[in-house]
# Entry
Amino acid sequence: AGYLLKNYAEQGITVLGIDPAEGPATAAEKVGVPTRVDFFGEQLGQQLGNERRADVIHANNVLAHVADTNGFVAGIAALVAPTGVAVLEVPYVRDLVEHNEFDTIYHEHLCYFSATALDALFRRHGLYLNDVRRLSIHGGSLRLFVESVENVSTNVQRILSEEAKIGLSSHSFFTGFAQQVHDIAGALRDNVSKICSTGVLAAYGAAAKGSTLLNFTGIGRDSIEFVVDRNTHKHGKHMPGVDIPV
# Structure
């Protein structure tokens, strides 16, 4: 917590972290990042914006987690300075579908975004998606550069054109995704059965994606003896739903 903002603080730049969880907020404070324990939305954005507008707003892997998407963006619009920029990272639905990354679908992710949808979302609140970068992190993400003055880059124009060409806003783009996922699950179950017939199978990484994978495929304790993870806080626990010890 505070890992990003501490780099600003060390350069003498005024920063404020916002996190609804007390644990991460306390950790951020310890590394010199003043942090407010609160949920960010339209009300808090307006309150902070009335005190001081922000030149830079960072929200990496946050927008996909909030229930009130429009309220969150409205808060950004109220807080970002007229010449400022909001830099956000979100999971990219195109990569999810094209690479069959169904294991990234779990309770924390309420939305999976396309650039087309994001462009409309920001414009609804007087903001503009002026630049975008495709990232490999989390199976495929978008880094967004959002401002209150329209100055759309060729990067944005290109990705919007690509999405229109493949029909990303249409139902047909998603047709077949479910069947592909079921095919992958079946193949994985077959491979696991073959391995278990000749030896003991363990897993590495007690991650949320692993929990989604195991519960969807129905692979449980009868197939996997245990899971290994570097995080000591997970030791002695069990994978949700399938009861495999960590």
Observations:
- The CA atoms of residues 205 and 230 lie 8 Å apart.
- The first strand starts at residue 17 and ends at 18.
- The two ends are 25 Å apart (CA to CA).
